[in-house]
Write a structure and sequence with these properties.
heterodimer, A: 430 residues, alpha+beta, Cytochrome Bc1 Complex, Chain A, domain 1, 11 strands, B: alpha+beta, 15 helices
């Protein structure tokens, strides 16, 4: 046996048919049905276009979402919690800039109890005053704790730098925002956005499709919670910062959080998939250039990575790390060097081949079992993409050339276009 | 029910395989029966540092990560007080690459002085990132030496002091690898879209030729019974006070473990739990509260941890937690309340086992406890717990003399 030879069989990593069946309810709500998994469990994701993009003042979208659990026309918050726990389910409401989600995990055998509860939570929340005040107080405390973390400070300032104070993607919270929200705000938001015309559903796991479709039709398929036309917010004012480097002092920090990046575009842009490959080479995995240089050669950090974030109305890339206090300047220099390197020299073939395999594996992992699969389908829904996206992505990964990557780097990775946010004890530098 | 096949190779390596064709992937998970509890108290952090060095290349493989990436895989590892576990998830067709990689670094590492120095620096940054640069981040650095006086659980996995990490030598690491990273001290699990028989063959091919080595016999000091309540108060630059109470409890393989696990869920395991309803939702004295057990192989800890609401005095918070514990002892759960936490445990296990990685690491872990099949029997053990067991155990665990309390004061 020769241990120096790689026993590598499959050179091409292929994703099979990943397109879920789509069933439409009477009111035309789409349900994406994924059948997979070894255990008798089911996950249901409800996705509303009801993220902070749509809110008229801070905190409304996320608070409306979280408060769904705290009481309905028929149940108190305590009763809801009791019921969900009793049947061993998990119900997680969460929201981001563009969407609000309600995800529920359940044993398939308890669907008859969990589904009607889910429907009630979505359709008739009561937003009780006492629970609301309690929630806001807890949320404010969590926010105050978050503000002591350098990563949170850098993340918030980064969005602010890219989009400015009047843009929904750039808004920063203040403590007073927690006092300026009332239950009428939530009711209004719920009435406008938690509607069937604004909803997509993903079901994944092991279940009987016909039976489930019938139950969903009964609970979610009726016409009287449809919306009129959704009015897209037109052109909120974007005001990017003029300062390309922003320091946020925190004297007692023993590491500095770094965030380096720029606005780009979202998945609908034809160059997006190519940028994903380039980003992967730069900082998308353990063997990436940033990780190899700044962690494995210099030892400045426990981890560094670069991410591409796609929003409905924008997109950005961000290099993210926490480095020892004395290293932040040196780390920024190395980041610039790595960006320049991608701009000055084409990526060597061998490095590109490794990136291709790694990224194809990543696409494949998106379909590893029912829950990963539903996350991958969720990304499509969030971006209004068709199921062919993963094929197009795989094609780019397989075929993009060093020359094309070089062109993308020249266009988008100029260090002078990058914002640099540093949060920490910035007086100290090596 | 998770069906699996188990085999022990001549060199002592235990191999467990489990086919699951609902995924295109496979997982190779390798558990070594070595954790930070096996360290010398003067040289803590060594086991975790060795985990880092395992990615620096092995006898026949220059770059571990590059080969994982070529195979379209993803890998990582974790070290606890009890074990070190490596894993790779990769397209099922490339399974053999995973076995090649893991067997080669069991065979031997390609240590370099430079690699060691860099990884020390990386680990020190990890230490800062996880423990020093987070609000409440040093909780476990403080709690361990308070709760444990003799047992090596008294230091954290990352090391009790940065100077320990700085002073570890290449020879010490090499010796440790030789002593503990041998076939008879390891459990290999392979799960996913695989043929079990073929898998066993491949495991034999790559691991069977590794020479049998004598594994080190473990001898740890027993934990002396704690006789009086312990308390530590610190002041930190955080916005709110926090109370962390720990109580000594049984080891993972003791029948009491299951009862204690249920107690932690009853007390503060979710939004319908007693402490959450009372102290967060009703009286609002706490902004959050939870309780859990550490689940260590040697006798572990039962933890209750709560963050006080703005303006609430530390002493008030402490009194309320004690009152609730007393109320719990005097009013044990009825059938419905007990069924609830049992249902939840059973369901959670099903969610967890929807992932081949969790199945692989669990199979290894239960095999380490004696038999991978325990994984399928445990639900019964939870089901057999009744209200009497609960109140008896609660009475003995929540004895104040058995408690170590960390009061984390805000200076703001």
């Amino acid at each position: 046996m020769d241990r120096s030879k790689v026993p590598l069989k499959a050179k091409e990593i292929k994703t099979g048919n990943i397109e879920p069946d789509v069933v439409r309810l009477g009111n035309s709500v789409p349900i994406y049905m994924i059948h997979a998994g070894s255990q008798p469990v089911i996950k249901i994701d409800l996705i509303f276009k009801a993220g902070s993009w749509w809110q008229s003042k801070p905190l409304v979208a996320s608070t409306a979402n979280a408060m769904l659990m705290e009481g309905t026309s028929g149940y108190s918050g305590e009763e809801i919690a009791e019921k969900i726990d009793y049947y061993g389910s998990y119900l997680n409401p969460y929201s981001d800039r563009d969407h609000a989600f309600i995800s529920i995990y359940s044993l398939t055998k308890h669907l008859d109890i969990i589904l009607p509860l889910l429907s009630e939570i979505i359709k008739t929340p009561s937003f009780p005053e006492k629970e609301l005040q309690n929630y806001l107080e807890r949320r404010k405390q969590a926010y105050m704790v978050e503000k002591t973390r350098v990563t949170s400070l850098a993340r918030e300032k980064f969005s602010f730098a890219l989009y400015g104070p009047n843009h929904p993607y750039g808004q920063q919270l203040t403590v007073s925002d927690f006092n300026n929200i009332n239950r009428e705000d939530l009711e209004e938001f719920h009435k406008k956005f938690y509607l069937s015309g604004n909803l997509s559903i993903i079901v994944s796991g092991r279940y009987n499709e016909k039976d489930l479709a019938r139950k969903m039709e009964d609970l979610f398929g009726d016409a009287d919670w449809q919306s009129g036309e959704m009015i897209e917010k037109v052109d909120p004012e974007k005001r990017a910062s003029c300062n390309m480097r922003i320091l946020i002092p925190k004297e007692d920090a023993v590491q500095s959080a770094l965030r380096v990046g720029r606005e780009l575009f979202n998945t609908t842009d034809p160059e997006y998939t190519g940028m994903l490959v380039l980003n992967n080479i730069l900082g998308g995995h353990f063997g990436s250039r940033l990780m190899q240089n700044i962690r494995e050669k210099k030892g400045y950090t426990y981890g560094i990575g670069s991410v591409m974030v796609s929003l409905r109305n924008s997109g950005f890339m961000a290099i993210v790390s926490e480095v020892g206090t004395g290293y932040w300047n040196a780390a920024l220099k190395e980041i610039s060097k790595e960006l320049d390197k991608l701009r000055s020299k084409p990526v060597p073939r061998s490095e590109l081949e490794i990136t291709r395999s790694h990224m194809l594996g990543e696409v494949l992992r998106g379909f590893d079992g029912p829950f990963a699969w539903s996350e991958s389908i969720k990304s499509l829904i969030e971006q209004d993409l068709d199921a062919g996206y993963y094929q197009r992505l795989s094609d780019t990964i397989l075929n993009i050339s060093p020359r094309q990557l070089h062109e993308l780097a020249e266009r988008y990775l100029s260090p002078s276009d990058m914002y640099e946010i540093i949060a920490g004890n910035t007086g100290k530098s090596g | 029910m998770i069906k699996f096949t188990r085999r022990v190779l001549d060199n002592g390596l235990k191999v467990i395989v489990h086919g699951d064709n609902s995924t295109p992937l496979a997982v190779v998970s390798l558990l070594y029966d070595v954790g930070s509890k096996d360290e010398n108290e003067e040289k803590t952090g060594l086991v975790h540092l060795l985990e880092h060095l395992m990615f620096g290349g092995s006898l026949n493989i220059r770059s571990y990560d590059r080969e994982v990436q070529k195979a379209g895989g993803e890998n990582n590892a974790f070290t606890s007080n009890d074990i070190t576990n490596y894993y790779i998830k990769l397209p099922a067709a490339n399974l053999e690459t995973g076995l090649w990689l893991e067997s080669d670094r069991m065979l031997g590492l390609n240590f370099t002085k430079k690699g060691l120095e860099i990884q020390k620096s990386v680990v020190i940054e990890e230490y800062k990132q996880r423990y020093l640069n987070q609000p409440y981040g040093d909780t476990w650095l403080l709690l361990r030496p308070l709760a444990y006086k003799k047992h090596p659980y008294r230091w954290p996995v990352i090391g009790s002091d940065i100077s320990h990490i700085e002073n570890i030598t290449l020879d010490e690491i090499r010796q440790f690898h030789n002593d503990y990273y041998c076939p008879s001290n390891a459990i290999l699990s392979i799960t996913g879209n695989i043929d079990e028989d073929h898998c066993l063959e491949l495991a034999g091919k790559w691991f069977g030729t590794i020479e049998k080595r004598k594994s080190t016999v473990r001898s740890l000091p027993a934990k002396p019974t704690q006789k009086e309540a312990r308390k530590l108060e610190v002041t930190r630059n955080v916005p709110y006070h926090e109370i962390i109470k720990s109580f000594h409890m049984s080891s993972r393989d003791h029948p009491d473990y299951f009862t204690a696990d249920l107690i932690s869920d009853l007390l503060a395991g979710g939004k319908s739990s007693r402490l959450y309803r009372k102290l967060v939702m009703d009286t609002k004295l706490f902004s959050n509260i939870n309780s859990y057990i550490t689940g260590d192989l040697d006798p572990g800890l039962f933890i209750i941890k709560g963050r006080l609401s703005e303006g609430v005095e530390m002493s008030r918070g402490q009194d309320e937690i004690l009152n609730e514990i007393q109320a719990f002892i005097s009013q044990p759960p009825g059938k419905k309340e007990l069924d609830k936490v049992k249902n939840k445990l059973e369901a959670t296990r099903q969610y967890t086992h929807s992932d081949i990685l969790n199945k692989a690491t669990d199979l290894s872990y239960y095999e380490l406890m004696g038999d991978a099949a325990i994984l399928n029997d445990e639900i019964e053990k939870y089901k057999n717990v009744n209200a009497y067991h609960i109140s008896e155990l609660a009475r003995s665990i929540f004895d104040q003399a058995n408690s170590s309390t960390l009061l984390y004061h805000s200076n703001q």
